[in-house]
Write a structure and sequence with these properties.
The structure is a homodimer.
Chain A (H helix, E strand, L loop, with lengths): L13 H11 L2 E5 L4 E4 L6 E7 L2 E6 L5 E7 L4 E2 L11 E6 L3 E7 H5 L9 H27 L3 H16 L3 E3 L4 H8 L3 H13 L3 E4 L2 E4 L9
Antiparallel strand pairs in A: 1-8, 2-7, 3-6, 3-8, 4-5, 4-7, 9-11, 10-11
The structure holds a DNA duplex (30 and 30 nucleotides).
DNA sequence: CTTTTTCTGTTGCAATTGCAACAAAAATGT
DNA sequence: ACATTTTTGTTGCAATTGCAACAGAAAAAG
């Protein structure tokens, strides 16, 4: 995606946007799949905006196991300001697909260098909207993790995914191994539960295509 | 807390703030402990700002069990815009202590009626800061819930609490029953684990005062 | 087109967890 | 001060889960 067409600059003219970018001292950077985009280390000044590709924010435990905290897609925000003071777990953002990222120092956003700049106010409003979206995403994650059993977590995730694609047949956005890290459950235990659910006729799984045959709970509305 | 001294109006003169409040068509309302402040029902227009007291945003499951999603304190934000489209669970904000709340329609914030209003830009920036804080809180919650075992959840929670009070001896901000709902685990199982941890000499518990005797993991730095 | 790596699928076993049910203690209301 | 409600503390038991270890399938790399 073109940075200037990114939701961050919605409602701002191209000219104003490019002026703002230099005013913000924005830095653009590309990342290959698997590369670490940012490792949280106490430096909480930069806000990252994913302008293309996909990435994951995860906590790597001392024993090496990984818990995916957030899945980041186009126009998502990330950065250490949005994180709690670090635990012993390593917190990092890693590219899933090839990514383009724009870094802006938060200072430039919250303290307008020139409030007269056309579009600055608009950008702040856009950031507000993007941040709201992140809150929604995190809230969704909390809902998932609040489910007591693996089955409930799976059903809730599937229901949300089905709602997104507006069909009982939907596509897994990532591998089952990744799903286990996202739901923060043991992979083999998750596979076992998945098998049970298949046998009991709740779902059908063909590769990464899943069909909800009976949707008990956790969906929208 | 006086609404005009709330972080939302930081850096805004009293005069400008009261002008903005009427411009925003802000509505102030008080709630007694236990009262429902807001039940999410698909009406996603109002942003709530808790100006005094404390409240909890929770999901009530079909079987009646409760999962506390967020604990809200002075100057916290809430509202359906920050929530995922509702599941079958009831989502509600309920007062813990006596609360004062100000409701503002989001429209007034994101679409300035009069961008010339002194302080409007400042309020939007303040909202950005408050929202960032909410993201941090939610991220903290996700970190807690991502822990696999009840023991890890407890230790992580205790470590954070100790960090907040900057002491290995700290005070539980709410009842153990509430803690179980917050960690989304069975209360009796949590008590059992707590007992084990006491016996193994990890912690000491006297009423609502907890002492961390050995802090293994999950703390800050 | 191999080779290597990652992902899927499975299982036994031990440990943890949720559930139900209860008694005692503490807090709350009248 | 007494009655009532809520919270704490406990336990047995069944079910779920994590862990470890593995084999085959699929995907990625060379």
């Amino acid at each position: 995606m073109d940075l200037l067409q990114c939701p961050l600059f919605a409602g701002v003219t191209k000219e104003a946007a490019s002026r703002l970018l230099s005013c913000f001292q924005a830095e653009q950077q590309d990342f290959a799949p698997g590369e670490v985009i940012l490792r949280y280390d106490g430096t909480a000044s930069r806000i990252g905006i994913l302008t293309s590709g996909s990435a994951a924010l995860s906590r790597v435990r001392a024993d090496g196991s990984v818990a995916i905290s957030q899945l980041l897609e186009e126009s998502d925000l990330f950065g250490e300001i949005f994180s709690f003071s670090p635990s012993l777990d390593i917190t990092e953002v890693r590219a899933e697909e090839a990514c383009s990222v724009v870094f802006i120092d938060k200072h430039h956003i919250t303290h307008p260098c020139c409030s007269t700049c056309a579009g600055h106010l608009q950008v702040i409003q856009n950031l507000f909207v993007l941040l709201s979206r992140k809150v929604v995403q995190l809230d969704e994650k909390v809902e998932l993790l609040s489910k007591r059993t693996t089955r409930e977590k799976l059903l809730c995730f599937f229901a949300k995914q089905a709602a997104k694609e507006n069909s009982a047949v939907f596509h897994m956005p990532f591998a089952f191994t990744t799903l286990a890290e996202y739901l923060s459950v043991d992979r083999s235990a998750m596979m076992r539960e998945l098998k049970k659910m298949r046998e009991e006729g709740f779902i059908r799984v063909e590769g990464r295509t899943v069909t909800l045959l009976a949707l008990p709970e956790g969906g929208d509305t």
